[in-house]
Amino acid sequence: MTQSAARISALPAAIRRPIPRLGHARARLRALAGRRHFWGVAAVAAATALLHGAFEVQQYHRFRVGGYDLVIFDQAIRDYAHGRLPVSMFKDVHDAAQVAPGYAQPFSILGDHFSPILALLAPLYWIWNNPQVLLLAQAALFGLAVPSVWAFARRALLRIAPPRKAAVGAYLTAAAFGLSWPLQEATQAGFHEVAFFVPLSAMLVERYQARRLGQAVACAVALLLVKEDAGYVVAAFGLLLLVTRRVNGEPLERDERRRYRITGVALGVGGVAFAMAVLHLWIPAYGGRVGFYWYYGQLGPDMLGALKTLITDPGYAFQVATQPDIKINTLYFLFWPYLYLSLASPLCLLAAPLLAERLFSDKPEHWTLDQHYNAFLAAILIMAAADGLIRVVGGVSSLRPRLPGRVLALRRARPWFAVGWPALILLFAVVITHTFPIRSVFNAGQWSADALTTAQTAATAMIPSGVCVEADDDVATHLSSRDQVILLDQVPRGCPWVVLQTAQNSYPLNDILLAVERAHWLRQNGYQLVFNQAKVYVYHRV
């Protein structure tokens, strides 16, 4: 034995023993990779992320991702990456009315919404300083929700089908989720906080079904960091725990049921209290107006007034929630692709606050299909539908054998529902895709630049780095990584560089005539036209 070996052998056993955490982590990783369905589920998750990522990149390079809201998040998270408060000049200047009177500091997005979880993306800017990193991160986070959807669906379908059919049905369900139209619309809308809500809500529901209460509560707490209204979803989860008697068909034991009740009360009260604290304490502390996002004037001037209307005049409240008809159309598209089976599951309780928040809103963007708001419901509704399927099929199967032969035949055929229903909803997702935006990924012509895109690219090349620029909403995203970008609107901001276009309507100058008037003002106030191509213009003032 060498001298060094003798010294090592003389050390206490606790010191000579290898680090257990590292060894256990490697063992867990090897065990996970060796599971039968690991690579299959990983493939569906990767395909989901790749599809949405490709669509994001395509939209970005064709100047179809608006600066409002991508530049806001880009500027704020870049500040996180440099150890500063998340300030967005884009938001600070354009939405100055949101800032509380007397607030003299640059307006932080922490006074806009409570989304500290966005700081987790800051390290990505150390690798690539470009807003596209947020688009790709969102695509990856959507893909991260797939394993939870698959695991939930397989565990549910095992109640009516053998393992092989249940696994096939779970793959089809996961694929339908990855292709679902709410995720497509969220991808087209650019980056938003929903990127984190989708995987966390999927994990929450799956951990609940797996009877891992502690892990489900951890997911609920993490949801609170995504957005302030997630507190109401957490409260709804608390209500779900209160009414839970069985989980995935198995009854809760007495002690377990008691834990669910105590946890449910804590989450129910805590979720609402947290949302109220953020609204009335956190947001004002960072310069935001408390009532800036109050879109419920039809119900009352504040939360108490709205609750009073809901209780004392439910008929009027129902009218508000169902008019105009576009609200019903959105509900139709949310539920019919799953054959309305989501409504047969108590998991639908988690969707109730999000639906109420939109249906009672005065803001038209909350009612439509073409926004990211529907993606908040994507994982919840498809998992609720899988649970609803089991409840409906199980209810038919529990009928007495003396019932007519058709019922008995349906009872014997129930394993095929585990494959037939997921196959049908995947077919619906594929068919719907033909009318939704992500289909452009499969169109070769959509990957090439047209005259407008070429002009916009050339216009951005005219702008030097490190300058202040007022930019068209679509062009702003291509400048924010190197310039101080402000959204071009009807109010002159004094930047030496201005980029505008009159080829098509662009937010917030939603009328081409407004853009023409803005160009006329620039010429009258000392700006020189230095670029003109395909109705895209760059003005500069020395």
From TrEMBL:
<feature type="transmembrane region" description="Helical">
    <location>
        <begin position="38"/>
        <end position="55"/>
    </location>
</feature>
<keyword id="KW-0472">Membrane</keyword>
<feature type="transmembrane region" description="Helical">
    <location>
        <begin position="415"/>
        <end position="436"/>
    </location>
</feature>
<dbReference type="Pfam" id="PF09852">
    <property type="entry name" value="DUF2079"/>
</dbReference>
<feature type="transmembrane region" description="Helical">
    <location>
        <begin position="375"/>
        <end position="394"/>
    </location>
</feature>
<feature type="transmembrane region" description="Helical">
    <location>
        <begin position="133"/>
        <end position="153"/>
    </location>
</feature>
<keyword id="KW-1133">Transmembrane helix</keyword>
<feature type="transmembrane region" description="Helical">
    <location>
        <begin position="217"/>
        <end position="242"/>
    </location>
</feature>
<dbReference type="InterPro" id="IPR018650">
    <property type="entry name" value="STSV1_Orf64"/>
</dbReference>
<feature type="transmembrane region" description="Helical">
    <location>
        <begin position="165"/>
        <end position="183"/>
    </location>
</feature>
<feature type="transmembrane region" description="Helical">
    <location>
        <begin position="331"/>
        <end position="355"/>
    </location>
</feature>
<protein>
    <submittedName>
        <fullName>DUF2079 domain-containing protein</fullName>
    </submittedName>
</protein>
<feature type="transmembrane region" description="Helical">
    <location>
        <begin position="262"/>
        <end position="283"/>
    </location>
</feature>
<keyword id="KW-0812">Transmembrane</keyword>
